[in-house]
């Protein structure tokens, strides 16, 4: 049996060949399917991609090919599309499709080619804005979200703390670390104009520690002579990054001065003017002069606004020079036991006046002589019964002139060696 189509007005023709009907146009050429790409552009890793093979008839099986048209199909389906829910870079390449039906099987020609260009999704990275490895309680913290891409995309940023969303859409996230904790932060970027998102960053672990204390390295000695080279050293133990160091010296009380409490004693502090630059952790007296005598502490700061460490412990420093006065001790020794008597006096070789006995001891009282001692003209101080708290340093002073300094220790008879830490106090 033979079927003929004689109407020339028909836009398609049906022919019989090998007991099989195929679709063609009026000129008898087989219809070629059209392949198209559906999805968000640009195609980034993790995006969903759909490739559609379009034919204007039904009953077809669809074959999809990648790389070369004569390779094994990556998909064979009655559905005219091939979808990848989360595309990888390796999924990129050239794709074709064709359709087939009947028995024996008939294939349409291959479709047009479609390129799927897959770009690695940009990765967000969280870091501290400053190159620090630790953060302290009370410090202002700024986290930075960086996304490396070509050009300069207008990213809108999202921040997360332990997976919970935080306010703010800028690449910097600033807050104050109000307590000691360990926490994780992540970020990502979004370009709404092209509906593109970066990958969420790896968790950034932020550890917050207690406020540190500056540590002033103790000098091997505290008594120096005019002209000596004296260097004080300060550090923030366990942290070396970003610190500026400032040095302070005790001064007479004034309400505008800062002060510290140490061993129940209050010290008024004045910033040493030539240490304001804060370069490094050392302060050098070169040469040392009488005016440098005093008690020194240090403190470190960093960041904007400035974050300060606690003040260091106090370091007494004595600079002596040639003087017409000398401190006389009776009995003439520096180590004594409790219950013993002691007399101190300032003897002047010339007619200079204004000399007085000075001391730094454990006691808080300030008087012409240590508390419980007897004051006499000269100046002269004496006691009939020494106490361990009388341990300290003693000297004679007139304005900026100093005698030699004597370190006196008083030991209890119950212990062969009992020393007290003493710190200077100026008035």
Spans where pLDDT lies below 50 across 5 or more residues: 1-23, 415-427
Number of helices: 0
Give the CATH topology of the largest domain: Immunoglobulin-like
Structural class: mainly beta
N-end to C-end Cα span: 129 Å
Provide the domain count. Answer: 4
Strand content: over 45%
For the biggest sheet, the summary is: 7 strands, mixed
What Rg is obtained from the alpha carbons, in whole angstroms?
A: 44 Å
Q: How does this model look, in words?
A:
The chain is an all-beta fold. Strands 23, 25, 26, 27, 29, 30 and 31 form a seven-stranded mixed β-sheet that branches. The chain has strands at 12-17, 20-25, 34-38, 43-44, 49-54, 61-66, 75-77, 81-84, 93-101, 106-107, 114-116, 118-119, 124-128, 135-136, 140-147, 156-161, 164-166, 172-176, 182-191, 196-197, 204-209, 214-216, 223-225, 230-236, 244-250, 258-262, 265-271, 282-285, 294-302, 307-308, 315-320, 325-330, 335-337, 342-348, 356-361, 374-376, 380-383, 392-398, 401-402, 406-411. The protein is built from no helices and 40 strands. It folds into four domains: 12-117, Immunoglobulin-like, CATH 2.60.40; 124-209, Immunoglobulins (Immunoglobulin-like, Sandwich), CATH 2.60.40.10; 214-319, Immunoglobulin-like; 324-411, Immunoglobulin-like (Sandwich), CATH 2.60.40.10.
Please write out the topology.
Blueprint: E1 12-17, E2 20-25, E3 34-38, E4 43-44, E5 49-54, E6 61-66, E7 75-77, E8 81-84, E9 93-101, E10 106-107, E11 114-116, E12 118-119, E13 124-128, E14 135-136, E15 140-147, E16 156-161, E17 164-166, E18 172-176, E19 182-191, E20 196-197, E21 204-209, E22 214-216, E23 223-225, E24 230-236, E25 244-250, E26 258-262, E27 265-271, E28 282-285, E29 294-302, E30 307-308, E31 315-320, E32 325-330, E33 335-337, E34 342-348, E35 356-361, E36 374-376, E37 380-383, E38 392-398, E39 401-402, E40 406-411
Parallel strand pairs: 4-12, 14-21, 23-31, 33-40
Antiparallel strand pairs: 1-2, 3-5, 5-8, 6-7, 6-9, 9-10, 9-11, 13-15, 15-18, 16-17, 16-19, 19-20, 19-21, 22-24, 24-28, 25-27, 25-29, 26-27, 29-30, 29-31, 32-34, 34-37, 35-38, 36-37, 38-39, 38-40
Keywords: Disulfide bond, Signal
Domain Ig-like: 33-99, 122-201, 212-312, 316-397
Organism: Clupea harengus (Atlantic herring)
């Amino acid at each position: 049996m033979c079927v003929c189509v004689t109407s020339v007005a028909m836009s398609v023709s049906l022919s019989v060949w090998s007991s099989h009907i195929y679709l063609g146009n009026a000129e008898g050429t087989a219809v070629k399917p059209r392949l198209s790409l559906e999805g968000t552009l640009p195609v980034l890793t993790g995006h969903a991609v759909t490739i559609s093979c379009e034919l204007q008839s039904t009953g077809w099986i669809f074959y999809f090919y990648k790389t070369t048209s004569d390779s094994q199909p990556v998909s064979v389906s009655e559905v005219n599309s091939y979808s990848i829910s989360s595309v990888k870079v390796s999924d990129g390449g050239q794709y074709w499709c064709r359709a087939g039906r009947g028995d024996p099987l008939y294939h349409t020609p291959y479709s047009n080619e479609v390129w799927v260009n897959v770009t690695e999704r940009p990765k967000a990275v969280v870091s501290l804005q400053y190159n620090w490895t630790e953060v302290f309680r009370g410090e202002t913290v700024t986290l930075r979200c960086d996304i490396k891409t070509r050009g300069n995309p207008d990213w809108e940023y999202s921040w997360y703390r332990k997976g919970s969303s935080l306010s703010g859409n800028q690449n910097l996230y600033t807050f104050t670390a109000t307590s000691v904790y360990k926490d994780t932060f992540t970020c990502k970027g979004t370009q709404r104009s092209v509906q593109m998102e970066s990958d969420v960053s790896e968790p950034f672990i932020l550890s917050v520690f207690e406020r540190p204390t500056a540590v002033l390295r103790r000098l091997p000695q505290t008594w120096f002579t005019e002209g000596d080279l004296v260097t004080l050293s300060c550090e923030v133990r366990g942290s070396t990054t970003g610190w500026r160091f400032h040095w302070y010296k005790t001064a007479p009380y004034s309400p505008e001065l800062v002060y510290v409490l140490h061993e129940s004693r209050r010290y008024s502090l004045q910033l040493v003017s030539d240490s304001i630059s804060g370069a490094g952790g050392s302060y050098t007296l070169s040469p040392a002069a009488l005016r440098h005598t005093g008690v020194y502490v240090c403190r470190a700061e960093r960041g904007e606004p400035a974050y300060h460490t606690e003040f260091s412990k106090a370091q007494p420093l004595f600079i002596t020079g040639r003087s017409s006065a000398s401190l006389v001790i009776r009995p003439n020794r520096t180590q004594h036991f409790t219950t013993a008597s002691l007399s101190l006096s300032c003897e002047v070789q010339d007619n200079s006046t204004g000399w007085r006995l000075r001391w730094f001891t454990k006691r808080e009282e300030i008087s012409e002589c240590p508390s419980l001692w007897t004051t006499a003209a000269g100046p002269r101080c004496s006691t009939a019964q020494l106490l361990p708290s009388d341990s300290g340093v003693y000297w004679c002073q007139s304005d900026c002139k100093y005698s030699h300094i004597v370190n006196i220790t008083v030991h209890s008879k119950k212990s062969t060696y009992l020393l007290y830490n003493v710190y200077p106090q100026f008035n």
